[in-house]
Specification:
By secondary structure, the chain is an alpha/beta fold. The protein has helices at about 10-35, 50, 55-70, 90-105, 140-145, 160-170, 185-190, 205-215, 225-235, 275-280, 285-295; strands at about 40-45, 70-80, 105-110, 135, 175-180, 195-200, 220-225, 245-250, 255-260, 265-270, 305-310. About 35% of the residues lie in helices and about 20% in strands. The termini are far apart.
């Protein structure tokens, strides 16, 4: 439609992507309207910067959550209009895995041109067997993935990239299914017991997240709480502004902070407010905090899933 040929410059590819995105979203809109699965669709465009930068990561997660809250289906794609080689995901498998991570998903489904992961290439080896379940991705599993996909089309990854995506998802506690997507109604077929490879995450999303938080290095600040808040946190509750006595440090939303009482450490977590915001609502109830700030964030200063005790 644009009259462009092969061998395009980067800016020409980006321009073509800008035009293509409008047609793609229109197709998704029509598809969801026809199936009545969602009244609206919303577009979210990501680059690797959105998963590397904690604040951009939180903004992306907030946008996905907000769309789902209003019954709108997020359609996620790579932002090819601004992405360069340094910040490209490179294939939709990795993009899907990072999207699952951002969204806090429990399951990632990757639709492929084969039934799942085989012990050998099923197009050349009649003895190739489908692996229905993989408990852990080992070097042997990765070696099996090197030649089990048919010729991949432009813009898609082979089986090796799908296993890499499953590893990314597993690190955030998300299991993966690789299943055939070339027939009509592939998800219904899968739910009815159709073929596929299920790759276990090995740990829950919450457990994976807490391990990640525990392994973070330097905290950006300190939040001092009263004994009541400390007891609540230790019992598995979130940290609310009412229980905070003081703060120290120039931290921002999404940063790691140390949580302590005047007499000792309680834990660490990812804070949901910038330091200047939090300084205004110390000791306040959540409803009062929204009135003081003039807008509403999450009720908790540190959500329990973003908090590690000890």
């Amino acid at each position: 439609r644009l009259g462009l040929s092969t061998g395009l410059r980067l800016e020409q590819k980006q321009a073509a992507s800008a035009v293509g995105q409008t047609h793609l979203m229109n197709a998704w809109r029509e598809a969801f309207e026809a199936t009545k699965l969602a009244p609206q669709v919303g577009q979210i465009l990501l680059t690797q910067s959105d998963t590397r930068d904690r604040r951009r990561y939180l903004n992306a997660r907030g946008a996905i959550d907000a769309l789902l809250d209003i019954g709108t289906m997020p359609i996620v794609n790579e932002n090819d209009t601004v992405a360069t080689a340094e910040i490209r995901y490179g294939d939709n498998d990795r993009l899907a895995a990072h999207t699952a991570e951002i969204a806090g998903a429990d399951l990632l489904v990757i639709l492929s041109d084969v039934n799942g992961l085989y012990t050998a290439n099923p197009t050349t080896d009649a003895g190739a067997a489908l692996l229905p379940v993989i408990d852990k991705i080992t070097p042997d599993i990765e070696a099996m993935a090197s030649g089990t996909s048919k010729e991949a089309g432009e813009g898609s990854g082979g089986m090796a990239t799908k296993i890499t995506a499953a590893k990314i998802a597993a690190a955030s506690g998300c299991s993966t299914i690789i299943a055939p997507g070339t027939e009509d109604n592939p998800l219904s077929t899968l739910l009815a017991g159709g073929p596929g490879t299920f790759i276990r995450a090995g740990q829950s999303r919450e457990a994976a997240r807490k391990v990640w938080i525990r392994n973070l290095q330097d905290a950006a600040g300190v939040v001092t709480v009263d004994e009541g808040a400390a007891a609540a946190i230790t019992s598995g509750a979130s940290l609310l502004p009412a229980g905070i006595l003081s703060i120290d440090g120039d931290f921002r939303r999404g940063d790691l902070v140390t949580i302590c009482t005047p007499t000792g450490s309680v834990g660490r977590g990812l804070v949901a407010y910038d330091a200047p915001e939090l300084a205004r609502i110390l000791g306040k109830k959540s409803d009062e905090a929204a009135q003081i700030l003039g807008y509403r964030r999450r009720s908790a200063v540190v959500e329990r899933n973003d908090l590690v005790v000890g």
